[in-house]
Specification:
It contains 25 helices and twelve strands. The longest helix has 27 residues. The chain is elongated and about 90 Å long.
Length: 587
């Protein structure tokens, strides 16, 4: 790592925020007990339980992109079901707790299923309906829930104070939000965390990286439900009483508002947000308790107006704006990294067919985007795909990558029929691609934007890839991808496809926005991928000079049909091709 990289500010302050959050929870969790203030002991026990729920709400809302207004239901399921079996049926607390946790899991499953079909605030309305119905359901099922009277429980041993006035309950209630914070951080830094966020931000890109967005959403709800269910088990001995009024719809709003006020996506956000949203109206303004919903709304409105990204989020945005850079026009170049790679011996295109399309037809209503196309791409070759705008090139790439389905015909990848395969299955067969509009994720550093390519790779990375990855991480781990130019974003997406180690790579206009020198380096990269790494490349590009310099064979499309195909020298002399490029080199 060079000297400038060593002095760079952190791209993400997640880890410092975790340590600050742990310190704040420890102070509020243990401080009142040590001071012997019973009122604040109970208050912060409840606050810390709510903080844990808000942490999982934050994870669900931001990392997984799921808008849920029903986390109060999951908390209530964990607490209420445990109370039914412990308080009414006299099961042991351990057994009742496991049953309550299973009930929370089922609640998360119930929320996860609609997430497979509806998204964003439409999903929020589904979960909101559950939050509205839940207390009514508890009252109507009075045979099992004791109705409006609620259930009282007593667990004396958990309230004993063996050390410095700190009870086991105080210890657990302080430790759990710390653990929740650590879990959230660990998931965010993991391969799963990156996949969750990719699926949330760009489902299309996720599928081409072998990620199934529906599965990611499902996992996110289950993780959040289990985490919230544990908080429900702690809620039971903390309050010693559960009733339908304790889990009304405004409780779910508290968790949601805490995330927004504190700062969406910030590790410290749920802590600061919960202190403001819950303590202020419920403790400091207790005499106006009947106006809590109004106070919640005013607090959220004022905070969003003064701090558009939430309190912690706005501070973090200011820090990033002042400190984290993209290093201008030289912020991301490929040549210095590619020059250091050795690759293997020279590869040449073989006679084996890597990609074959047979009579492929794709319609969008009355428009025929791909019209009875036959295409064969040999293993290891660079195959140029050219044509005017609207000729069907990108539509064909979308078919090959599984993002759309043929209406007629078929296509094979490495001899296997992939016509009806999903995009993630095709990606996992060894296919990678770039897009006309680069898929760059501003929540990730530049290195993390590249690393998601390695996350999607099948098997162990090769020696050259490991060497390349180490160099990229050392150089770009603290750089912002959001500050890259359009051309640099394209190069980053190209490098991501390279790190994926796909056997077949689809490039969709990769040179658009690149300078002349960047185009030359890109041509060098394409040659390296083909000749040194044995990759099969299909290149959609309008820069004819670039295509003719790197392609082994070229296919020309017009109005969805293939009008010519052959080697570059042959295509240069084809009158059917020349008339399409007036003013160009081949006109």
């Amino acid at each position: 790592m060079n000297a400038s990289a060593k002095t760079k500010p952190r791209f993400s302050s997640d880890l410092p925020q975790v340590w600050i959050g742990i310190a704040l929870i420890a102070i509020t969790g243990f401080g009142p007990s040590i001071m012997g203030n019973a009122y604040w002991v109970h208050t912060f026990q409840l606050v810390n339980i709510y903080i844990a729920v808000a942490i999982f709400q934050n994870f669900l809302f931001v990392d997984a992109g799921q808008k849920s207004f029903g986390q109060g239901v999951i908390l209530g399921l964990g607490a209420y079901v445990a109370a039914i079996f412990f308080g009414l049926h006299e099961y042991s607390f351990a057994v009742a707790g496991l049953i309550g946790l299973f009930a929370a899991f089922l609640g998360g499953l119930l929320f996860a299923l609609p997430a497979l079909r509806v998204q964003y605030f439409h999903l929020g309305f589904v979960t909101l309906s559950a939050a509205i119905v839940f207390p009514q359901l508890l009252m109507s099922m009075d045979k099992w829930t004791n109705g409006i009277n609620g259930i009282s429980v007593s667990i004396p041993w958990i309230h004993e104070e063996p050390i410095a006035g700190i009870s086991l309950l105080s210890f657990l209630v302080a430790l759990y939000p710390m653990l929740a914070l650590g879990i959230h951080y660990a998931i965010r830094r993991s391969r799963l965390g990156r996949q969750l966020r990719i699926a949330a931000v760009s489902p299309e890109a996720a599928r081409t990286l072998g990620i199934r967005p529906g599965v990611m959403r499902f996992l996110a709800f289950i993780i959040a439900a289990i985490g919230t269910g544990v908080a429900g088990l702690l809620y039971l001995p903390t309050v010693s009483f559960v009733s339908p009024q304790g889990f009304n719809v405004e409780l779910s709003f508290v968790f949601f508002f805490a995330v927004v006020v504190g700062g969406r996506g910030q590790m410290l956000g749920p802590i600061v947000g919960m202190w403001i949203v819950f303590i202020l109206p419920n403790i400091l303004l207790a005499q106006f308790v009947e106006y809590r919903l109004l106070i919640y709304g005013i607090l959220t409105l004022v905070t969003v107006m003064l701090f558009p990204d939430g309190i912690v989020g706005t501070i973090e945005r200011w820090r990033v704006t002042r400190g984290v850079t993209g290093r201008g026009e030289q912020g991301f170049r490929l040549d210095s990294f590619i020059d250091g790679l050795e690759g293997e011996d020279e590869h040449k295109p073989t006679d084996k067919i890597a990609v074959e399309v047979r009579g492929g037809t794709k319609r969008f209503g009355a428009v025929v985007a791909v019209n009875n196309v036959d295409l064969s791409v040999r293993q290891g070759e660079v195959h140029g795909l050219i044509g005017a705008n609207g000729s069907g090139k990108t539509s064909l790439l979308n078919v090959l990558s599984g993002l759309s389905r043929l209406n007629a015909g078929s296509f094979l990848i490495d001899g296997k029929d992939a016509t009806r395969m999903s995009a993630d299955r095709i990606a996992n067969m060894g296919l990678g691609r770039t897009f006309q509009t680069p898929r760059i994720f501003r929540e990730f550093s530049l290195w993390e934007n590249l690393k998601i390519g390695m996350d999607a790779a099948e098997g162990e990375p090769g020696r050259d890839i490991v060497k390349l990855a180490n160099a990229l991480e050392a150089e770009f781990s603290q750089d912002s991808a959001e500050l890259l130019s359009h051309g640099q974003r394209r190069l980053a997406e190209v490098m991501r496809a390279m790190l994926k180690e796909a056997k077949i790579i689809l490039f969709d206009e990769p040179a658009a926005g690149l300078s002349q020198s960047e185009r030359e380096h890109f041509a060098k990269l394409v040659h390296f991928l083909s000749r040194k790494m044995g990759k099969t490349i299909i290149l959609v590009e309008h820069d004819l000079d670039l295509v003719w310099n790197v392609a082994d064979r070229i296919t020309v499309m017009e109005q969805g049909s293939v009008v010519a195909s052959g080697e570059p020298e042959e295509m240069a002399k084809d009158p059917a091709v020349q008339h399409m490029f007036v003013g160009g080199r081949l006109a």
